[in-house]
């Protein structure tokens, strides 16, 4: 009880140290928070200023160091991300990106510059500077708070890859020194306490605590800006610049964007304020994009859980800034489109729905995308496909030309089953460990396929209960893949008893932790007529054949032969349709090689 009271007092102190409160009740423990004040200088493409950050020790033991992500250093030469990523190179020397701490002290004013060093927890690349370790002058005791007062500079990279600049367009993400997650024993099946703070890899995304953000940005007066926070004020400084103040609560990341060319549109869904930033060339798509977001809000609210924040901002970057498209930062996300996009192609809607969905699986649930990308990207892709095909047409949700129709689910599944390396790895690797270009197809497409298959096995109602229970049990708590499986087992047991065995581990052992494929086929269908007997009557070990009744001397026998040619074994339902309109459903456990 004493430790709980200490943490509560620290929490209250931390929150009141910042500005206006947005949520009546905190959604998370709020173990970290940031008060950032910076200036954007377009001439140098540098964002510089100060950050006051806090971290609360959630463990029962002292912690003697702090680990910080320095993501922008990935865009300097020789970094792990830079050397491993053949798809990005800087636009001249001015295209490199970096982040530097120029001064840092703790809450007592002690200088920590000499206590900093870069570490490489994931590989042996001693040049990588995307993780910073700070040895503390004294340990942070259980329930106590570490305060860091930092001055820093962030040089934005070009061309944009998730973050950066192009011409006068800025998308500022992964841009400030940020705490890793300190995990306690038992959390996500961890054996002992310690920091979880991975390097920046080409395919990896992010893992963070839910935090409180107060962000103040000064920029040129003519720039139009948006962020993951609620705008509290905008002040004209009288010198050609303006200062904007934003606040966000209980989100895992804070990003912002600025560009003179943005057109701003607003709307509302229930009590959620919606802001949409787009280019002048795409104002004709505003209604499409707004409706897609409302569809996602409605569907996820009904089938997963309520959206807990009072605001959301989304962005459709201009064509020349498209490298910022398709990314998520909880209450801010980016869509993707083109200046000329026919209504028969729902790519903008799909991306909007997908990236907003991350507010749930990356934001609310805040799983570890470094180590288990499937639990965010894959589950989110599965829900995205359900939403797109539900609202835009079952059978043509993604493409609806008269001569060409396709579902979102079908296109995703096609990418998986036609991938030449779909069996090269299991589905549970670290994001940077997937071989042969399989990160995307495994994390997104394969996961979505076996999630949909799971829905087919246990039924729509039970599957929706799985998603709702997952949200209720693990919202704002950082679940692991094993935690998701436990939810599935509990809900299936509750709703269906032992219909599929003691638990569903047999399923996940195959589709998640195995590399087999699911492939059943109908070998052939035969129909034959026989006369002169009515049928076989079994009597013990003998069989006798009865003669047919008078006037009914023809027996029609239909035979369907099935084979399992894949490694994955699933229950099979076969619908047999006869030419007279009759239908019969046959059941097979799918274990043998043939039936």
Question: What is the structure about, briefly put?
Answer:
The chain is an alpha+beta fold. It has helices at 2-16, 80-84, 286-303, 347-364, 374-392, 408-417, 439-458, 460-474, 481-496, 505-511; strands at 32-41, 46-56, 63-69, 98-106, 116-118, 131-140, 145-155, 164-166, 169-172, 178-179, 181-183, 194-196, 211-220, 224-227, 230-236, 241-251, 256-259, 263-269, 272-278, 311-315, 332-334, 399-401, 404-406, 520-531, 535-539, 542-546, 554-564, 572-577, 583-588. The strands form 9 sheets. A 7-stranded mixed β-sheet has the order 4-7-2-1-13-16-15.
Strand and helix layout:
Blueprint: H1 2-16, E1 32-41, E2 46-56, E3 63-69, H2 80-84, E4 98-106, E5 116-118, E6 131-140, E7 145-155, E8 164-166, E9 169-172, E10 178-179, E11 181-183, E12 194-196, E13 211-220, E14 224-227, E15 230-236, E16 241-251, E17 256-259, E18 263-269, E19 272-278, H3 286-303, E20 311-315, E21 332-334, H4 347-364, H5 374-392, E22 399-401, E23 404-406, H6 408-417, H7 439-458, H8 460-474, H9 481-496, H10 505-511, E24 520-531, E25 535-539, E26 542-546, E27 554-564, E28 572-577, E29 583-588
Helix pairs in contact: 3-4, 3-5, 4-5, 5-7, 6-7, 7-8, 8-9
